[in-house]
Amino acid sequence: MNVLIVDDNYDFRLTVEEYFKSCGHQTANASNGLEALNILDATPVEVAILDLTMPAMDGYETLDYITVHYPRTSVVIITGKPQVNDLSLLKNGALFVEKKPLDMVQLELKIRNFHMAIERVQSATVPYQTVIEQDINQVYELILQEIDNYHLNVDYLAASLNVNKKQFYERVRDLLTISAHEMIKFLRLLKANELIRSREVTTLKEVSRRVGYQDSGYFARLYREYFDVNPLDLMKKNRRSRRLTK
Predict the structure, then answer these.
(1) Measured between alpha carbons, how far is 77 from 99 in angstroms, rounded to an integer?
(2) pTM of the predicted model, to two decimals?
């Protein structure tokens, strides 16, 4: 992954950068939002780790700008402020919020897992490196191909893969530690999140239909439970952003 660390504390951001480098990521760092935007203009960034309190351009402004102009860049907020409104940041496009002092190992794993899941939603052609990856990517690909199918369920997947339902349940739980039902819901919601953030959809009915939910109210409830934000609020924010950039 290409990771950008944005924090006005020089020692802190270098420490974070060195850790992510040691995990095999390509990294860059900036001391404020303006410097970060210059890097984003010049280099594709998959994840920006963003502090809130910075000079010149703070984290709030930077998050808003990245969400509008770089929708493919995921933003992780880091902050030492105990009173920060996490929900507001999530509504404005943050992937998640981490409080300082950071647990570096947990932060890197969390970002890696989120990014892997998003990549699988964006493309069903993840390189197969192990037998386990082959097995699970076969399931991912099938779900993504049928993501708008209202009838997609465990029975449908098991039949498509020529295995009985009990074998399918056991295999998925062995590989992912979640149920097959949860996996289908997880990928539906991740796809919905991608559609909303990329502004490909403008109504709740449209996004719910495109990820296989006939009942848009039920979809909105699931989305809110998973992402802790109302999908309607995100779509309204997208419409306001479009007007501001015209």
Answers:
(1) 8
(2) 0.52
Burial label for 42, CB within 10 Å (0-12, 13-18, 19+), is exposed
Can you give the residue ranges of every domain in the chain? 2-121, 126-245
Question: Of 19-28, 133-142, 177-186, where does the model show the most confidence?
Answer: 19-28
Q: How far apart are CA 116 and CA 103, in angstroms?
A: 20
Average pLDDT estimate for 217-222: 93
Cis omega (within 30 of 0) on the bond before 55? no
Which CATH code of 1.10.10.60, 2.60.40.10, 3.10.450.50, 3.20.20.140 fits the domain covering 126-245? 1.10.10.60
Q: Rounded distance, CA 22 to CA 213, Å?
A: 42
Q: Which homologous superfamily is 2-121 in? A: Response regulator (3.40.50.2300)
Q: 36-62, pLDDT tens digit by residue?
A: 999 999 999 999 999 999 988 899 999
Strand pairing class (2-6; 47-51): parallel
Q: Cα dihedral sign for 44, 71, 82, 189?
A: negative
Q: Which run of H or E residues covers position 67?
A: helix 59-69
